[in-house]
Design brief:
By secondary structure, the chain is an alpha+beta fold. It contains 12 helices and 25 strands. Helix 6 packs antiparallel against helix 7 and helix 10 crosses helix 12.
């Protein structure tokens, strides 16, 4: 058989696999993605993308391609008899929390785009950045050794060939044949129930004027869930595994709408398992699990499903890039499991603590305090060897203003001026290592250490290279005194911080960068 080679092979061309290929290609990593299907699923599935996901897409240049929701948008759900019938009450996702007035956590808002509309955008961008996307291509088998992974692939014409890759990302879904072949088990709430659904098109926009877009249908003898994809398509979900013919489906749709005078087009039906399971490990040697292969989390208004997987891909991409380029030792990749698996478990606990799934908890997340949305979205904490001073005594998540630049958390968003343009602090990050500092003595230290370790670090002087709109607010947000410095990783997370100027900046910075980057020198 013909043999090809690449640095990273991604198996699975859904949202997470495409995001992984895109993030890797953006960093210049040779990447091949294979997907056994010819394109996106006819059932749209996911629709909601969080501000954090939009920050990641914005960094690679996709911001203008994906329309964002209004700043005050929140996903609202109500219990109704039917759309045209009686509306009972609205059910909140998270109890209202007190937030400091005027705080802005992100330059982005969320987005509501059907998965089958978003995937082609990601695919196109990944290809434009240099990723090799191969649809209708199936992984037949694989084996890994000390120096890489060998995969046998079958193309759409039946031709089989071999692909050698330094690393493999398994984004092959909740049933993940790769995870099963590796013998990685899963824990968690487990199977909740099997769902059936029907996707249809109908002119129902008038029922969205209230701002509620998700509906629990509650009639005697008829319980279902109805929501819109915002493009004329709606999905009606049944909490059972009963197969229904077209006539019955039309009858059920009419009951959910509460009217029979509208033209309804049935598009397709779906069947899937609603479950919550977390893999016992997100890595095995040179193979990494991402997305549903690593964690299946039921759809939530908090965006704990696809969005968690997309950030898996982002976390893994910069680490693979550093290792493949030779800047970091392979042990940096151990921090992927250390950082992302606790996040999956945190979200598992949180979704069952909330009202949408409280009845399905079955003892999971008992007495778990609800963490507010801003903390879950922007304030999760990473603990690993790629972070200094993130102790086990710290909580798993807090709002950014409560963290104040704590290492292990996403660097906070503030508006700055750079080269005469207004930018977010987030625009300064996500490409490489960045040290933010005000004192001029940090500059020579960064230059010397970067050259010594073979790692490019950009030193940005506060007040010189970048100018905060409020210098005091900047120092408070990052937890820095006038002489302090904050080291930001290539994924936008704080790796290390010196609150004040240290006695030997070069030595202290060198020790910190060597550890958190797993420097190869």
């Amino acid at each position: 058989m013909k043999t090809e080679s690449t640095s990273v092979l991604v198996v699975g061309g859904g949202l997470v696999g495409l995001s992984a290929a895109m993030f890797l290609a953006w960093r210049g990593v040779p990447t091949v993605l294979v997907e056994r299907h010819p394109g996106s699923s006819p059932h749209p599935r996911a629709i909601g993308y969080t501000p954090r996901t939009m920050e990641l897409f914005r960094a690679v240049g996709l911001g203008p391609r994906i329309p964002q929701a209004p700043a005050d948008f929140r996903l609202r759900r109500g219990r109704v008899e039917s759309l045209a019938g009686q509306w009972f009450e609205e059910t909140p996702w998270t109890p209202e929390t007190q937030q400091s007035p005027g705080l802005e956590y992100s330059p982005c808002t969320g987005a509501a785009v059907a998965q089958d509309r978003l995937e082609p955008i990601l695919r196109e961008k990944a290809i434009a950045l240099g990723a090799d996307i191969r649809l209708s291509t199936e992984l037949i088998r694989f084996e890994q050794g000390a120096d890489g992974v060998v995969a046998s692939l079958r193309a759409r014409d039946g031709r089989e060939y071999t692909m050698r890759a330094a690393y493999l990302i398994a984004a092959d879904g909740h049933d993940s044949p790769i995870r099963e072949a590796l013998g990685i088990g899963r824990k968690g709430r487990g199977l909740i129930r099997t769902l059936r659904s029907v996707l249809f098109r109908a002119p129902l926009e008038e029922y969205l004027r209230s701002g509620i877009s998700q509906f629990n249908i509650d009639q005697p003898g008829f319980k279902a869930f109805l929501t819109t994809y915002g493009d004329g398509r709606w999905v009606l979900m049944f909490s059972d595994d009963e197969e229904r013919d077209e006539g019955t489906l039309r009858e059920m749709v009419s009951k959910a709408i509460g009217r029979t005078d509208l033209e309804v087009e049935l598009i397709t039906t779906g069947r899937w398992e609603l479950s919550a399971r977390i893999a016992d490990s997100f890595a095995s040697g040179r193979i990494f699990l991402a997305g549903d292969a690593a964690h299946t989390l039921p759809p939530t208004r908090g965006g704990y499903g696809a969005n968690t997987g997309i950030e898996d891909a982002h976390n893994l991409a910069w680490k693979l890039s550093a290792v493949v380029s030779g800047a970091s030792m392979p042990r940096l990749l151990d921090t992927y499991d250390a950082e992302r698996r606790p996040i999956a478990w945190l979200r598992h606990e949180q979704l069952f603590a909330r009202s949408d799934y409280a009845a399905d908890a079955a003892g999971n997340s008992k007495d778990v305090p609800i963490i507010d949305d801003a903390a879950m979205e922007f304030g999760q904490l990473y603990r690993s060897s790629a972070v200094l001073d993130a102790s086990n005594e710290l909580p798993p998540a807090l709002r950014p203003e409560q963290w104040a630049g704590q290492p292990g958390t996403r660097a906070p968003h503030l508006w700055m001026s750079k080269d005469g343009e207004r930018v977010s602090t987030l625009d300064l990050f996500q490409r490489g290592w960045v040290l933010l500092a005000q004192d001029e003595r940090w500059g020579p230290a960064v230059a010397q250490v970067g050259k010594q370790l073979g790692i490019e670090v950009q030193c940005l002087r506060i007040g010189i290279d970048v100018r905060p709109s409020d210098e005091s607010a900047f120092r408070t947000a990052f937890g820095l005194g006038v002489g302090g410095a904050s080291l930001i990783r290539p994924d936008g997370y704080v790796a290390w911080r010196a609150s004040e100027l240290l006695e030997d900046p070069r030595r202290s910075f060198g020790d910190a960068l060597r550890q958190v980057s797993c420097a190869a020198r």
